[in-house]
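Hypothesis: this fold can be encoded by more than one sequence.
Test: take the structure tokens below, design a sequence, compare later.
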């Protein structure tokens, strides 16, 4: 069973407190919804250019100080990730990581190697395995599932190595707006990279399936061509809503960041009674350590009405689990986790 099969199973179950998916419980802004509705009323339901509407590309370019030729709007943030992996030959990934990277690598029959980070080292990666046999490295900071970020020093170390070996960096920065400390970005460096962001987490627009990538014209064209032969183009009315999202970007991101920060503090406070974890720098995830097998823990927790993901979905981390801070019932959920732990370890 993979993470998507598990999620489908949970959707057919009666779970009181769902802390499994990266599905924000916060509502989409009424201003965005109104903009989408207006677009539908205006007949914005036809094909758009395969790299996104000129209006949205212009707004994205202005926000990041890039040219429109360096922007491609895509059907979700996962799309440019998949497209970039499709064009790679050998890939390096860092675990624990979002399972979709591995799913794409295996679906496209790509060669890959894994850098396994450790809880005892605060999930900091080592890039010693990197050499000229690779042509792509995938990084994700703030990280799903650990919530940690990559220091400026580590970013530079990776960039320097990739320049030496002519390796492209795919930087999945989907959670960049949900940060609780200073964060670094691949956009801070002049290198061969693909920056990926999405409207799903900051604006809770998961079902809208809209994201974008910033890269060189060559890389952008490859992603655009891949979109042409698969999904054709993002929906026009959805991109119309994204324009409104950029108008209220600062206000929404500040509000969302504040809400998740308070939940992070609450979760870390109550988890400390029985669980070990590395404090998060961003995202709405925590990746606690367990003294028992996580699948056993998760299955027993489901019987108490709480859902989380077992650590094995994110790599060889059977003694960890990921909880999403997408509910206001965090304290209640952790109490039930403690009950399960007591039953399993006899304490």
């Amino acid at each position: 069973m993979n993470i998507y099969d598990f999620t489908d199973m949970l959707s057919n179950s009666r779970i009181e407190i769902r802390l499994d998916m990266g599905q924000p419980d916060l509502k989409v802004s009424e201003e965005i919804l109104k903009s989408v509705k207006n677009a539908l009323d205006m007949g914005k339901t036809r094909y758009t250019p395969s790299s996104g509407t000129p209006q949205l590309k212009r707004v994205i370019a202005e926000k990041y100080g890039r040219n429109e030729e360096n922007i491609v709007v895509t059907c979700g943030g996962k799309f440019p990730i998949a497209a970039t992996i499709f064009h790679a030959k050998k890939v390096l990934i860092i675990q624990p990581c979002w399972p979709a990277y591995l799913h794409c690598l295996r679906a496209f029959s790509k060669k890959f190697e894994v850098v396994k980070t450790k809880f005892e080292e605060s999930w900091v990666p080592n890039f010693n395995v990197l050499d000229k046999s690779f042509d792509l490295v995938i990084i994700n900071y703030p990280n799903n599932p650990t919530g940690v970020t990559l220091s400026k020093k580590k970013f530079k170390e990776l960039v320097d190595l990739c320049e030496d070996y002519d390796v492209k960096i795919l930087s999945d920065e989907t959670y960049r707006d949900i940060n609780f400390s200073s964060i670094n970005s691949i956009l801070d460096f002049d290198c061969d990279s693909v920056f990926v962001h999405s409207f799903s987490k900051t604006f809770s627009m998961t079902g809208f399936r809209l994201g974008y990538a910033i890269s060189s014209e060559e890389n952008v064209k490859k992603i655009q061509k891949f979109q042409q032969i698969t999904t054709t183009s993002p929906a026009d009315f959805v991109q119309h809503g994204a324009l409104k999202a950029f108008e209220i970007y600062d206000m929404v991101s500040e509000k969302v960041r504040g809400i998740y920060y308070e939940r992070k503090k609450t979760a870390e406070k109550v988890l400390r009674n029985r669980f070990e974890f590395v404090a998060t720098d961003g995202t709405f995830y925590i990746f606690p350590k367990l003294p028992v097998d996580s699948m056993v823990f998760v299955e027993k927790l489901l019987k108490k009405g709480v859902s989380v993901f077992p650590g094995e979905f994110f790599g060889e981390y059977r003694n960890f689990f990921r909880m999403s801070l997408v509910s206001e019932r965090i304290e209640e959920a952790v109490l039930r986790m403690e009950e399960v732990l007591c039953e399993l370890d006899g304490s």
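The chain has two domains: 3-22+250-339, 46-248. The domain at 3-22+250-339 is CATH 3.90.1150.10 (Aspartate Aminotransferase, domain 1).
Hypothesis status: open.
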